[in-house]
Amino acid sequence: MRLTKLFILMVLTSISIISCKKDDDDDTEVVPVRDRGEQAIEDDEALIAYLQTHFYNEEDFQNPAEGFDYKIKFDSIDEANADKTPLIDSDLLSTKIVTRNEVDYTIYILKIREGVGAHPTFADSTFQNYKGELLNEISFDNTTNPVWFDHPGTLTQANSGLAVVAITEALVEFGGASNFEVNDDNTVKFTDDYGVGAVFLPSGLAYFNNARENIPAYSPLIFSFQLYKVNQADHDQDGIPSYLEDLDNDRIVSNDDSDEDTLPNFIDVDDDGDGTLTRDEIIVNEDGTITFPDTNGNGIPNYLDEDEFENVNAI
């Protein structure tokens, strides 16, 4: 009898604990995600306020000292430097509209030097140094040596090595260096004509409600950079540059999946799923241009037409 009573008591206690835990869980406050359109307006106001009250080291670029690193430094305008030109009034500052999630965002691009080398597309890869800052002038990231960024134009970018949308849309306005040389210690020195600039961006084109290390949720960000090299990307090596796999022209290649096999075309070696590799359904000419055969004349190139699967390079 005692054992029976003890067992019943244990069961009741367990039920009570579970009920309490459920009640505790029910009391957890769920913070709703902010409206993207409203947040975009708030972020833009914050960015404009920053641009009106800050300047960059303009004199360093006008008369570069020997060994100058061409890094942009921002500071706030106060009584001691009241003669400085606010960023908002700089002739080198421009705006660009970037649409994501049905919201038109404004980014601000400071183009100190465009760079004479090739410009990247929104789906290429770039080699650069960069520094990331919050609007309170706290740096959350700063490279010592250049790093590669991949720009696949994805909707969400949470992996290292992938640039947030606004960085991509800024870097396409710049070029890399015209050349480089390899030093005796195997380090690389780029010619002094690479792109130098910065982008001021709203949280909706960065991490939005997802806080990251040293970056609070809903933080507008600043990235300054020196763009050294550009690589035209063909992520799946099918002969078609990745930017050309953006079939709907929305500057996002991750949502173009012709055969609906969950692999976007830019990482799918058989875009139409007909069993013939994409590279065998196109012709890459000696001058680098690409011919897209349409054998049956239905307006759909062979590499996107599952009813056409001949190897055009074997003919």
Report on the structure:
This protein is of the alpha+beta class. It has four helices and 13 strands. The chain has helices spanning 2-26, 36-53, 58-62, 165-171; strands spanning 54-56, 74-76, 93-100, 103-113, 125-134, 139-142, 147-150, 180-182, 188-190, 195-201, 221-231, 283-284, 290-291. The strands form four sheets. Strands 3, 4, 5, 6, 7, 10 and 11 form a seven-stranded antiparallel beta sheet that branches. A hairpin with a 5-residue loop joins strand 12 and strand 13 (290-291). It is globular, with a radius of gyration of 26 Å. GO terms for molecular function: peptidyl-prolyl cis-trans isomerase activity. InterPro entries: PPIase_dom_sf.
Features:
4 helices, peptidyl-prolyl cis-trans isomerase activity, 315 residues, alpha+beta, seven-stranded antiparallel sheet, PPIase_dom_sf, Chitinase A, domain 3, disordered N terminus
Quick overview:
It is built from four helices and 13 strands. It has 315 residues and is of the alpha+beta class. GO terms for molecular function: peptidyl-prolyl cis-trans isomerase activity.
Give the beta-strand count: 13
Percentage of residues in strands: 15-25%
Overall geometric form: globular
Largest sheet: 7 strands, antiparallel
Fraction of residues in helix:
10-25%
What is the total number of structural domains? Answer: 2
Please report the first level of CATH classification, the CATH class of the largest domain: Alpha Beta
InterPro entries: PPIase_dom_sf
GO molecular function: peptidyl-prolyl cis-trans isomerase activity
